[in-house]
Amino acid sequence: MSMSTLGQQLAAINAPGTNTGSTFSTSRRHEDAIGRGVTHSVQVGHAMRNKSHLYKPSIIYQDAKKASDVPLATIRENCVASLRQLEAMDPEFGVFVTLLCKPNEKERGLLTSAENETIDTTIEDLLFRLSLRMSNRNGNSNNNTLAACLHVVEYLLRKYDIHLRPKTASTMILVMLPHHEEPYFLRILQLIDLANLPEWSFLRPFAVPGARVGRSELAAQASKDVAMVRSLGRLSQRNIRLPCSQHSLSFTAAVLVEALTLQTHRKGTIDERTLQTLLPFVVTACRNKKPKNLEGGVAWQNWGLVLASTIVETSVLAPEPQKLLVTSVLHGLTQQRQAFTKAMKKKSSAAFVQNRDSLSLLLSNGMIVALTILSQEPLPLSGADSKVTIEESRLPILSSLIPSNASFTSNAYCGCSMDKDILAALLKLDESEGGDGNTCSSDNVLTSGDSIVAHCLGSLYGKEGLVDFKSWIAAILVTSWRRILKQGKQNKEKSVSLSNRRRPLNLILALIQQADLEPLWKKSNGQWIESYTSFVLLNTPCCSVDADQQHGNEENSQMEIFHLSAAKAILKVLRRLDTVAYERGLTHALIHSKTKEDRTNLVNWMGLSRLPADIQLTDDIEMNDEENSKEAPMSISLPPRVALEHAESKIRLDAIPVLLAEAKDERNTEVDGGGETILQSFLRRFLVDDDANVALASAEALEDLLSFANSHSVNAIDSVELGEGSLEGLLKWASSTNLDEITRFGLVVHACRFASRAAKALFTSKQNQMTLLRLLEALGAFMSNKEAQIAEEAAKGIIFAWDRPAETRRDESIAVAKSLLISDEKILREYRRAFRKNDSSEIYIRRQLVGVLLDAFATHLSSSNVFNEEAIEYCIWLVDAFSDNLRSCADTQLISECLLGTAEYLASTPENIVPVFSRLASADKIVFKNAFAPYIEAVCKNVKDKKGYKVSPAAVVMEALLALDNRDQIENVASVARDLTTTDQIGSFYSFIPTIALTCHSNENVRGLAVDLLCS
């Protein structure tokens, strides 16, 4: 038969009819014949293979009659043509033409058992390849390819009776399982006697036309039969050697995952026999040793990762299987990384990007699976492994809330089980291509290359919904450091290469410096930095030995030197992240040193003995051992940042010059990574310290450091923060009554200087105008201080803020400062607006500022009309804003004196008289009488007409009186009118008619006031 009939043959597979898909002859059937194969006879109850000419097996023809019409020679020709077609896709198919398609090949019954075995092996290999090419997933195959594969199977059925031999029949079912929903799979089931294959007997009900084998049926069988699990594992393991195996691997993984899930729902966990059967395949897949191609290796390893994660979720593993799975996963990731590196040297950039993304995804999945396995609580250890304690791979997490002498509980640890083999696998994964680890110079162990482990953990750490990677990171940090320390003990007879020593160190440094892991190190106020600093110092025995005191053989000495260098490298990076947290960890290590000698040596090694402050640790804490508690107290120096927070004021005081020197030596007033700067520490101590001497020393150090930072162009401190702090300091220390005058004077002076620095910076940046106004208000208020030096310092601060040349004489400085305060019209208006919103500082500063501004206005009224207008506005606003606090004669006298200076200006602008009088008349009677009434009289007496002649004062005031509606306003102005009319007879005449008009006012009280005025 020619290949031109392939379309008809494929159509016959799906043809409708009562005999669709069957190759049985037209005879009566019985239920017992279902699944017994094509040669089974219902009449005799068994297969009748001696009548094979009546039962021609076929997978592509509609029935036995049509199959019998096609001679074997035609089928062989079609098979050879099909293999040649498939050879274009895979050259291996061409080999089978010679092996299986010889024209004069003997019948199988005439061959020896060894020859039959060889043929079966070849046929199995061909079937595995054919099943992968028959897939039509993702466009990898078309109808021509499928038809070619079916013709090859057709030849194997007719020539080699693969449906009759149990070995090849079982293999054919196995390789065709991924095609369980296709019609030709049902045809295969109908050809084979499933009753003689116990492993596949569950498929007998489906060996009928029109049946459908679902994946759920296969999964259900696998959940009950370990032989099915073994077969699926064998199928996956065999297919990985061949191309186009992704679809088959996806199928087997899905069936096994569903089977494990069903088994868990039924029994509560995975059956032990199932796990014993499946685990070797999973370990092999995860390890993926020497993958032949990168794509297939990734698919095979993903198969293992999927099943490994399923096993962990549905069962509890003993430590050995748990460890085996984790190390297999990590070894497999290493194999894939090495294969990727080699493959990319030969491929294009597009292939590089594609495979790089594939490898990155595989690494992420592998890390997640490995940590999921490790995070599972293992079964209890036994034997020698029982000596491994929980602390050996867990980091003690410190907290400033925990007392220094408190013992750790299990809740204070972070980490997971990780032994030396797991760490070795991680370090192998982190190795560079050359195998020597990351590059590191002999003089600087701090230099580290890129770490694939650190990068992968960093990218996964911040993703929500994943496992908690901080436990694994903590375990890596702890076990890596322990490995560094143990290398010297375990390798006394054989030398350890420098690269092997540096591998765990490089991994530690990479984890600390990984940008994506910075939130982990910085969270909870640097808790991890504090904890790991303490851990490294407490677990480095050679830290208690000076370099000059090291003794023993040369190898041990070199190892101790490396331990010290490694510790310093780690501590340097931790300190760079957050100095405060680092020093807390250092302090914890000092306190918890096991012996006095260890503590003393640690102090000497860290250089703390050179600090000027001597701290008695035994005053506040309990020593760790009874022997030390009987000895005399030992004096050592705490780190300066820690000492600055100590409860004793003397210790805080001694820490200030050390911190100042440290900041100047490093020429860096900031802590990298966003921790509290030294400047901020000094400012905080200046504001909150309950000891005035410490606050003063902090202020002096802050002033010194601000000048130093400015001269070295260093970003010292935020201007708003400094400004707010200076305002708080001014209010606190100026109102303190229990301080000696010298100390209080120094604190207030420094607060003024800080305020002037902040104000100048805000002037320049033109931001945060509210803070700027409050700073100018505070400085202006302190110019009225009774202490001349404080007043002069406040005045100099205002001049400095305006960036004007400093005056040498105190009185000149104050005069210039006052003029500057009222020189900016915008500032004055913002000043009044801010007060109306009650956003200014305390009333103490407000009251002090009133006199300063009023005096400034009174001094400069003659220089500009702007000053006159602002003086009037300010005085009116002042009465409005402080009406409840300006009843004393002293306050109103200042306002009156300021306003009297503007009388001539207001008299020269008659159009403004009535509006101003109306606003002045709204004041309280006492304030009006003392401050405004004299001013209104002065204005009225200075009014002139257009020809320059003076106008009667009574006429002026009566005109304003008639424009008023409010009774209180009329009453206030009427009191001024009464005084003017009693001394001016002409004015009395001019006031008579306006007074008569007021008697007709709608307000009865106003009419009464008019009558009283007439009577007077």
Secondary structure elements and pairings:
Blueprint lengths: L5 H8 L26 E2 L4 E2 L16 H5 L3 H16 L7 H6 L12 H21 L9 H18 L5 H11 L6 H9 L23 H10 L1 H14 L6 H22 L4 H16 L6 H21 L4 H26 L4 H27 L18 E3 L16 E3 L4 H10 L22 H10 L7 H22 L7 H16 L4 H21 L15 H24 L1 H13 L4 H11 L8 E2 L9 H4 L5 E2 L3 H4 L5 H18 L11 H11 L3 H20 L7 H16 L6 H25 L3 H13 L6 H14 L8 H12 L3 H12 L6 H18 L4 H17 L7 H12 L2 H5 L5 H8 L4 H17 L11 H10 L4 H16 L2 H14 L5 H12 L1
Antiparallel strand pairs: 1-2, 3-4, 5-6
Give a structural overview.
The chain has 1016 residues and is mainly alpha-helical. It is 62% helix and 1% strand. It contains 44 helices and six strands. Strand 1 (40-41) and strand 2 form a beta hairpin. The longest helix is centred in the middle third of the chain and has 27 residues, at 349-375. About 11% of the residues have low confidence.
What attributes characterize this protein structure?
single chain; about 1000 residues; mainly alpha; two-stranded antiparallel sheet; two-stranded antiparallel ribbon; 6 strands; elongated
